[in-house]
Design goal:
The chain has 283 residues and is α+β, with helices and mostly antiparallel strands. The chain has helices at residues 13-17, 66-73, 79-83, 90-98, 109-117, 124-138, 155-158, 163-171, 174-188, 196-203, 211-220, 232-241, 250-261, 265-277; strands at 2-7, 26-27, 39-44, 47-54, 57-62, 140-144, 147-151. Helix 8 (163-171) crosses helix 9 and helix 10 (196-203) packs across helix 11 (211-220). The protein is globular and about 50 Å long.
Length: 283
Amino acid sequence: MEKYEIEAENFDLELTLTCGQTFCWNRINGDLYGGGPSKFYTFRHNKPLIVEQKDGNIIAETDLPREEVIKALSLHHDLESIYSTFPEDKKLEEAREQLEGLRIIQDEFFPCLISYLCSPQMQIPRIKQMHNNIAQEYGETVEYQGEQLVRFPDMEELSEASEEELRDLGLGYRAKYVKNTIDILKDEGLSISSDYEEAREDLKKLYGVGDKVADCVLLFSLEFLEAYPLDTWALKSAEKHYSFLHSEDYEEASENLREYFGPYSGYAQEYLFHAARKGLIEV
């Protein structure tokens, strides 16, 4: 493997990978959402990527090119430029200051999609457990310096699973979402527009994908940084602090929030989401 040292100004690896946006990363030792040493891994293009942060820099070990590491962790995002597009907003500023270094990462499309298909009515650690169960059952284990790294299956590999087998892994009714979505992807494929609203509608052609799941995949995998997923914590934050933007209609609320926070609304969402989840702002 190649070893890269990449300057990572204004970046907190631990915070970024444990704020609730990803299920595709793992700790080398310990549980992603349960604590442990801040050394993490994922797979991209079926190749392992191992990262840790030392003296502010990212140390990466991988056979992937350096640019792939930068893309995965969004180290190319200019956070100061992103912040400059936000409106003057005390709650967002409060959340951002307490979560300095949090970035929106970019996971691979298929594992990200499957993770969020498992997310309805589930808390973050439980979603991660479902992701892990699928990886252990249908993926591949790779040994690295005495550690066992588990790769999430690709679409062909996971297509071998029946709905019943997925239910047995703890997915419950979400197993049907996963199975039917894989069938659609295999039989029909999926073309995703470069326009945000059209892309959201494209993703909703998949079984079990509604507005929230589509927004999560757009934001955390396809780099539509204007997406504003409205999950439980985001909704609580919006109702408490942005009642003038809130609506019971998802599309209307989403449009209101995106117009207010601007072209990088996804960053505003993640700061407010995690701040609410951690009790850093009142909801």
